[in-house]
Design a protein that fits this description.
The structure holds 2 protein chains of 2 kinds. By secondary structure, chain A is mainly α. Chain A folds into 2 domains: 45-71, no CATH class; 106-203 and 240-389, MetI-like (MetI-like fold). Chain A is built from 17 helices and 2 strands. Chain A has a two-stranded antiparallel sheet with strand order 1-2. In chain A, helix 4 (98-104) crosses helix 17 (349-389). Chain A is flat, with a radius of gyration of 29 Å. By secondary structure, chain B is mostly helical. In chain B, 72% of the residues lie in helices and 0% in strands. Chain B is built from 15 helices and no strands. Chain B starts with a helix and ends with a helix. Classes of the chains: A mainly alpha, B mainly alpha. At the A-B interface, helix 1, helix 2, helix 3, helix 5 and helix 6 of A face helix 2, helix 5, helix 6, helix 7 and helix 10 of B. Chain B: Residues 94-286 form the ABC transmembrane type-1 domain. Chain B: The chain crosses the membrane at residues 27-48, 98-120, 132-156, 162-183, 204-225, 265-286. Chain B: It is a multi-pass membrane protein. Chain B: It is found in: Cell membrane.
Chain lengths: 390, 301
């Protein structure tokens, strides 16, 4: 603050020497005497001009590379386009909503692939979101303890994975999870035979049930394998994430938990010390304090972390690209990667664009939930502030 | 818990107190040890990565868990920088990543703060609408934009050029939002004073407002550098030729099987490590700055 107040007078001594202030040498006096409204208007006009000058790069870049492309892609999602001709000429093969119909209604390879990708991503979301949230909360509570020495070091250690390149850490995990790699080496130490992670397409649900002898993952019962809906059999729908997908889940939980830990930490430090102290005086134990004081105070952040997780997990792409390219047996295929590979490898840009918009709809739905939650939180905070002001 | 005296500190004798203290110290040590173990699990992938870069292919395959490279080899580093990497033009990747990150960071810091200031402080027609548009643009996820970006880049005839790689990244909605939030938190009086003294909009912005925004600008610089250095999807859909490959796209293609032969894990991990180091350095150097900037913002309220 002190530096800014001293820089103020410093700049006031300037105008005398500035060429542009020559016309307005008596500006201070004129403002007092002259018609204020005209001056106001002139200044507003000037500000309006400068305002547009200041935002023009933003308007240009975001308009050209965000708004326009969305419009173009919406058009292309209604075409059967192979990426060769000009999609905006009259020669374009307009097919209406066919691309969307191929995804949901018509039986065929496209729908099977799309439904497989939805299934994979759904199981991925169901595992990643709870795991990363619980882990982040646990880490934040642990790092926040007063007893802990070297908090900064721990915070850095947990946060560091999330600032690194997703491509680089995917490379590392590819190395760690090789069939004769470090992870399986560790498992061997404790007497376990690790799977060959990246080629194992078995669903986790069937593998676990197989341990108890309930099903044989190798030979599905006809009741489940023979019937199905939307192009996939029940056996495929209910399989859970494949073993290969689990490596991506481990990787993502490991990288994102640090980010969310920081959010929880900030909220934990916002809990008034007096509140914790009074709980202690009332004789609340550690567990009771956590349940009745800390967790209720964390609820807004918890909700934020959950919804951010829901939004982020539908966008998984980089890890799939590096670690599996959708393999084995399409069990790590996600809508984002399918959209990419259909467009760039199979030249089905129309279908690829249509998947983009379905994905956008899913994510916007999640964002809507988040906005609602945030509004609720802001409202409550304003209420609290108003009360304390009174 | 064992003696009733220990439960009630008011009546605790000196002996009970020392028992308590001892137990407290032991608990504290145990807690720290458990945390150290967890932190080790978090850092282990990086440790193994660094160690493996000094191993030979054979040792990396035979004993991936060994923490001591034997023989100690610098072959991968020589291969990456000496031009001997078959199909792995690492210097090109590095050069492209540096170029893109530097230009994009400079552009974002400059353009984002301009737009953020205008949206926070200048009165002009359409400001409200632009703010709403900015917020809605922020909620459009990058992955959804892959195909659309490719379409527009191809339509403009700049596919597979540096223009396509850099220009779309020069402005980012989140950065504008951060700067807007910051400028709104700065007291208006200082700008008013400068304006009354006859400084125009541009001069007020450049010599009064921007110097005050240093903490926010540092945050924006770090975020922009990290973001553009780690950027992947944008380059995947806007480039194709190997001469435009960056560390992320080059490495991704190398690792996913497009280049080279065999597993070559030491080489892959070395490339990944070298791609991680710049961001790691920035992170460790500026981490304290981050915290301090946040605290300064909180104190100002």
């Amino acid at each position: 603050m002190s530096t800014t107040t001293t820089s103020g007078p410093g700049s006031t001594s300037g105008p005398g020497t500035e060429p542009e202030s020559g016309s307005g040498s008596g500006r201070g006096a004129a403002a007092r005497r002259g018609p204020g409204r005209a001056r106001e208007a002139r200044r507003a006009g000037k500000q309006g001009l400068w305002g547009w000058v200041f935002v023009s790069p933003m308007v240009l870049v975001l308009g050209l590379f965000l708004a326009l492309p969305v419009g173009m892609a919406l058009w292309v999602s209604l075409l059967n386009w192979d990426g060769q001709s000009n999609p905006f000429s009259g020669a374009a093969d307009f097919v209406g909503l066919d691309n969307y119909r191929h995804l949901f209604a018509d039986g065929g390879l496209t729908r099977t692939l799309f439904m497989t990708s939805l299934r994979n991503n759904l199981y991925y979301v169901l595992l990643v979101v709870p795991l990363q949230t619980v882990l982040a909360l646990g880490l934040a509570l642990a790092v926040n303890r007063r007893r802990l020495r070297g908090k900064g070091v721990f915070r850095t250690a947990f946060y560091f994975p999330s600032v690194t390149s997703s491509i680089a850490v995917s490379t590392v995990f590819l190395f760690l999870f090789q069939s004769s790699g470090a992870v399986n080496g560790l498992l061997k130490w404790v007497g376990l035979q690790g799977p060959s992670w990246f080629t194992d397409a078995r669903g986790l649900v069937w593998v676990v049930l197989g341990w108890f002898g309930l099903v044989d993952p190798g030979s599905p019962p006809a009741a489940l394998a023979g019937h199905g809906v939307l192009g996939l059999s029940w056996w495929e729908w209910l399989s859970g994430p494949s073993v290969a997908m689990c490596t991506i889940i481990f990787l993502v939980v490991w990288t994102t938990s640090g980010t969310f830990m920081l959010m929880f930490l900030a909220a934990l430090q916002d809990i008034p010390e007096a509140q914790l102290e009074s709980a202690r005086i009332d004789g609340a134990g550690r567990w009771q304090t956590l349940r009745h004081v800390i967790l209720p105070a964390l609820r807004p952040v918890l909700f934020l972390v959950l919804t951010l997780g829901l939004i982020g997990t539908w966008q998984v792409f980089d890890q799939v690209y590096v670690m599996s390219q959708g393999q084995p047996a399409n069990t790590t295929l996600t809508p984002a990667f399918l959209s990419y590979s259909l467009s760039f490898k199979d030249a089905q840009y129309g279908t690829g664009a249509a998947i983009s918009f379905v994905l956008l709809a899913i994510i916007l739905l999640m964002t809507g939930v988040q906005r609602l939650a945030l509004r609720e939180r802001d409202g409550r905070r304003r209420l609290r502030r108003g009360r304390s002001a009174r | 818990m064992t003696s009733p005296a220990a439960k009630n500190p008011v009546h605790a004798g000196p002996a009970a107190r020392s028992v308590r203290r001892e137990r407290y110290a032991r608990l504290r040590l145990a807690g720290t040890l458990v945390m150290a173990l967890v932190a080790l699990v978090y850092l282990m992938p990086f440790v193994l990565q660094v160690v493996t870069t000094f191993k030979t292919d054979a040792q990396a395959a035979a004993s991936p868990l060994a923490l001591w490279p034997n023989p100690f080899s610098l072959a991968t580093y020589r291969q990456l920088f000496g031009g001997g990497g078959e199909g792995v033009p690492f210097p090109t990747w590095l050069g492209n990543s540096v170029l893109v990150a530097v230009v994009v960071t400079a552009g974002r810091v400059f353009f984002d703060s301009l737009a953020g200031y205008a949206l926070a402080r200048l009165r002009f027609r359409g400001r409200g609408l632009l703010t709403v548009l900015l917020l809605s643009v922020m909620s459009v996820p990058g992955v959804v934009l892959m195909i659309p970006k490719f379409l527009v880049v191809q339509y403009l005839g700049i596919y597979d050029t540096y223009t396509a790689m850099i220009v779309p990244l020069l402005v980012d909605a989140v950065g504008i939002f951060i700067m807007k939030q910051f400028f709104e938190s700065v007291p208006r009086e200082i700008e008013e004073a400068a304006r009354v003294d006859g400084a125009g909009v541009l001069r007020t912005y450049w010599s009064v407002v921007l110097p005050m925004a240093k903490p926010a600008l540092i945050t924006l610089t770090i975020l922009s550098f990290q973001g553009s250095w780690n950027e992947f999807t944008h380059f995947v859909v806007t480039t194709q030729s190997s001469e435009h490959a960056t560390l992320t796209t080059g490495l991704a293609q190398f690792v996913s099987g497009g280049l080279g032969a065999g597993t070559q894990y030491p080489l892959k991990l070395t490339a990944a490590l070298l791609a991680t180091i710049p961001v790691a350095v920035v992170f460790f150097v500026f981490q304290r700055h981050f915290v301090r900037g946040g605290n300064a913002g909180a104190l100002k309220e």
